[in-house]
């Protein structure tokens, strides 16, 4: 009897040892994971990732271990891609494998009820949502948004000149007005009085916060979602349910507003309603709109980054103004049609996106198949992060990466002396990777780029952004190191800095012609 038990115990032990150590049939040579920090037993590198500006830690790992790094959290590998080549190899060239998202219980399943285009898992639903967005953002629609974008950029100039102390809210108003106007046909009043503007920023900050790695235990231990909310420590469930309900109400209200505005101002959402729509249900359309309504926050960060760079590098500002004055002149505002003749302004926008990327770690992807890359094994289900911060600092692609150098995106024709846009090899048409990669590439990238460009062109034409002064009247050079940018969440914004706005020649009379929407408080 004892012998039988012993034999069974031995057989089970041998089977378990075999199962534990057996070679993975997809990794018969037992290739290693990409190199990286060892971490601690069981928890791995969980405690090595600070809650503050964690992209800087990941960037240090890239510098130490190379352009592809692995760290582990509770036994699960996370891979960081830290060069343009590696990111393009995996996310673009192997997009069939690397286009899923990790499972986010709080952000995706609870808050977004599995209908957020950016967090939904790869598959039929994701394809349908992307198709809907692409249908809504086709070239004709993007061109029809130009009058709204141009008008809002001029309202920004008027507002910021009148209330310079409140310029951060004016930037928020500009980006909200562009998105709410084009997506819903909504006329945005002041940031503080508008019906939707503050709510979309609030919703975006909760959503971005809920994506922060390790912030909510339920993402590490999904079973926690089934613990009743009266159990000590499960109070987060009530809060999450409230956030989810606030978002549902907001998205539904905005969709209804688009329906009412359809005749006066057709919009992305109104075009998607009804039988001819985009092939999604009305509820899904509301959530697609909801996903997009979170983008004023990221747009605001790029526009503020541009203003900070102009304060810090006045010589760049002057050169751009000289280009604008020679092409546009002083008797009209810059328009989209000028873009082709303003390569230096375009290069400033690109350099802003490269220099201080608003999403320094982009949005994580996940793999759906075991894979081998450059002698390393990457198992199915691995979370793969593109460290845009590191990618935009690869000195072989972007020499002197800490310097703000728009010229890196330009070449000069030696015979005519005219400037032309050039793009870096892996950055393809944009020259940077702010908008991500592959099948998850931001579908709003062109629209976002238009909004930032028209903002930059109009601000440079109308205003000098001057440095603030200290109590002795000396100019304050604004600090621009990474600590001057907010931490946490997915988006990083410049912290407040001192600057002044001065109207350029002949602009005052143009401001009189800028009509402010009803409800605007100046
Ligand atoms: C400066 C502004 C913006 C930035 C920096 C930005 C950046 C990004 C990034 C990094 C991603 C993830 C890419 C990846 O996973 O590889 C993304 C996804 C997305 N963006 Fe944007 N975006 C901006 C504006 C917009 C706008 C204006 C729209 C729509 C009009 C938009 C719609 C989306 C959607 C729907 C996704 C999810 C795509 C997917 O997962 O398939 N974004 N964006």
Automatic annotation (TrEMBL):
Pfam families for this protein: p450
CDD domains given in the database record: CYP64-like
Compartment annotation: Membrane
This protein's UniProt keywords: Heme, Iron, Membrane, Metal-binding, Monooxygenase, Oxidoreductase, Transmembrane, Transmembrane helix
Origin superkingdom: Eukaryota
Cofactor(s) the protein requires to work: heme
InterPro entries registered for this protein in UniProt: Cyt_P450, Cyt_P450_E_grp-I, Cyt_P450_sf, Cytochrome_P450_fung
Transmembrane annotation, as ranges: 5-21
Pathways involved: Secondary metabolite biosynthesis
Keyword Nuclease: no
Similarity annotation: Belongs to the cytochrome P450 family.
Name of the molecule in the record: Cytochrome P450
Organism (species): Somion occarium
């Amino acid at each position: 009897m004892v012998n039988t038990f012993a034999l069974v115990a031995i057989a089970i032990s041998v089977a378990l040892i075999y199962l534990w150590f057996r070679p993975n049939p997809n990794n018969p040579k037992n290739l290693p994971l990409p190199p990286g920090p060892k971490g601690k037993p069981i928890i791995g590198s969980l405690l090595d990732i600070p809650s503050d500006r964690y992209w800087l830690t990941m960037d240090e790992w890239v510098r130490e271990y190379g352009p592809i790094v692995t760290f582990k959290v509770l036994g699960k590998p996370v891979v960081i891609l830290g060069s343009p080549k590696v990111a393009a190899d995996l996310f673009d060239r192997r997009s069939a494998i690397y286009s899923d998202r990790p499972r986010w219980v709080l952000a995706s399943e609870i808050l977004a009820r599995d209908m957020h285009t950016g967090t939904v898992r790869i598959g039929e639903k994701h394809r349908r949502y992307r198709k809907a967005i692409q249908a809504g953002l086709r070239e004709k629609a993007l061109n029809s948004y130009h009058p709204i974008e141009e008008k809002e950029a001029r309202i920004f100039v008027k507002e910021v000149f009148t209330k310079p102390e409140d310029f951060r809210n004016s930037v928020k108003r500009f980006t909200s007005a562009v998105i709410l106007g084009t997506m819903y046909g909504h006329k945005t009043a002041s940031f503080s009085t508008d019906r939707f503007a503050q709510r979309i920023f609030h919703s975006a900050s909760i959503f971005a916060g809920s994506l922060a790695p390790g912030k909510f235990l339920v993402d590490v231990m999904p079973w926690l979602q089934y613990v009743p909310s009266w159990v000590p420590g499960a109070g987060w469930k009530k809060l999450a349910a409230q956030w989810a309900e606030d978002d549902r109400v907001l998205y539904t209200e905005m969709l209804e507003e688009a329906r009412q505005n359809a005749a006066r101002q057709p919009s992305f959402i109104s075009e998607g309603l009804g039988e001819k729509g985009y092939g999604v249900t009305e509820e899904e359309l509301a959530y697609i709109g909801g996903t997009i309504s979170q983008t004023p926050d990221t747009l605001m960060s790029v526009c503020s980054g541009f203003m900070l760079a102009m304060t810090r590098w006045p010589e760049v500002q002057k050169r751009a103004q000289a280009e604008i004055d020679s092409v546009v002149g002083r008797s009209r505002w810059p328009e989209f049609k000028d873009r082709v003749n303003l390569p230096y302004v375009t290069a400033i926008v690109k350099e802003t996106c490269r220099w201080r990327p608003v999403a320094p770690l982009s949005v994580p992807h996940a793999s759906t198949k075991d894979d081998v890359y450059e002698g390393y094994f990457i198992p199915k289900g691995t979370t793969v992060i593109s460290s845009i911060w590191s990618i935009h600092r690869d000195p072989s692609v972007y020499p002197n990466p800490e310097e703000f150098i728009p010229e890196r995106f330009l070449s000069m024709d030696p015979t005519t002396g005219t400037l032309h846009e050039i793009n870096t090899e892996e950055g393809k048409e944009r020259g940077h990777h702010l908008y991500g990669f592959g099948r998850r590439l931001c579908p709003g990238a062109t629209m976002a780029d238009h909004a930032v460009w028209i903002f930059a062109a109009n601000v440079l034409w109308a205003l000098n952004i001057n440095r603030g002064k200290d109590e002795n009247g000396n100019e304050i050079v604004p600090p621009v190191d990474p600590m001057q940018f907010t931490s946490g969440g997915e988006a990083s914004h410049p912290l407040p800095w001192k600057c002044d706005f001065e109207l350029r020649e002949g602009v005052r009379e143009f401001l009189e012609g800028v009509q402010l929407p009803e409800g605007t408080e100046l």
